[in-house]
Amino acid sequence: MKIFCVIENTAKFASEFYAEHGLSILIKYISYKVLFDTGSTPDVLKKNIKLLNGLEGLKSVVLSHGHNDHTGGLSYVMNNSSADIFMHERAILPKYILRNDKMEFIGTDEVLKTKLTHVLNDDQKNKSETRVELISKTTEIAPNIFILSEISLNNDFEEINPSFYIKDHGKFFKDNFEDEVVLVIKTDQGLLILSGCAHRGIVNTVSSVVEFFNNDDVYAVIGGTHLVSASEDIINKTIKELKKYDPKYLILGHCNGLNAMCMFRNVFENKFEALESGKEIIIGE
What is the pLDDT of residues 157-204, one digit of tens each? Predict the structure, then answer.
């Protein structure tokens, strides 16, 4: 299996890859190719994915949640690929963040939402063309490749950031991120878990995955953890809990935050790596 970080907040030094605030990860597993999230903009995704020949043979796109730094590049994929698109049924709801007493829209833009809705409602589409599947429960999209949606709030220290909101039927509600999903690949070495942001907590996320897969070992956790504004106490508790799963790799970035990155590195040492645009990870060699 090969994993490529297509988009992250930072890029490999002196590389051709662009960086932007967002996340996109490409996975090549046996003969299956899946893109997890699409970054913030079509232009950056177009630039970086071409360096990886990423759209060639792409089977699926999985959107971790409905924030625009994870869905923003999707229109480029839809215009240039027939890959199937998987997302939670609530990911299309308008999303906001409360900043300086003002609601700032951070959800899926209206043009993309219209395109997604059109595909969803077009029952006459040829089977060879793109389809959008809205999921509400854990779904196996290919042998040993799962989208897990049931992320439970299992501990007393990970809390959802209260600044995030959704708008439903004209009213604002606190966003509890029911739409957040993770991509899980079952390998001979254990579970490989890809997280977009882990708004419900990375420990809650990992523990939910392990419980669903009957306590399988955790091989690697890759992606975002949303520890960017967490206190050192919360980060230390997170590290303590993740150590119990003894992952071989922790490859984190995007919303992890510099403080958490340093603390993870100090504890996990060579098991920890930072994500960056252009990074290649080879599993199983």
Answer: 999 999 999 999 999 999 999 999 999 999 999 999 999 999 999 999
Question: Where are the chain's structural domains?
Answer: 2-282
Q: How many CA atoms lie within 13 A of 162 on its CB side?
A: 1
Q: Which CATH architecture group holds 2-282?
A: 4-Layer Sandwich (3.60)
Structure-block tokens of residue 76: 């480029």
> Which value, to the nearest 10 degrees, does the dihedral of the CA atoms of residues 118, 79, 8, 247 take?
70
**φ, ψ (nearest 5 deg) of residue 204:** -55, -40
Give the position of tokens 């977009």: 196
pLDDT per residue over 60-117, tens digit each? 999 999 999 999 999 999 999 999 999 999 999 999 999 999 999 999 888 788 888 8
Q: Give the distance between the most distant pair of CA atoms in the chain.
A: 55
- The reported pTM is 0.94
Residue 193 CB-half CA count within 13 A: 36
Q: DSSP 3-state assignment of 212?
A: helix
- Give the tokens for residue 127: 């089977």
- Asked if residues 22 and 49 have their Cβ atoms less than 8 Å apart, the reply is no
- pLDDT tens column, 198-232: 999 999 999 999 999 998 999 999 999 999 999 99
Instruction: Locate 35 and state its tokens.
Output: 């893109």
Instruction: End-to-end CA distance of the chain: give it in Å, rounded.
Output: 9
**Which three-class secondary structure state does DSSP give residue 159?**
coil
Using DSSP, state whether 193 is helix, strand or coil: strand
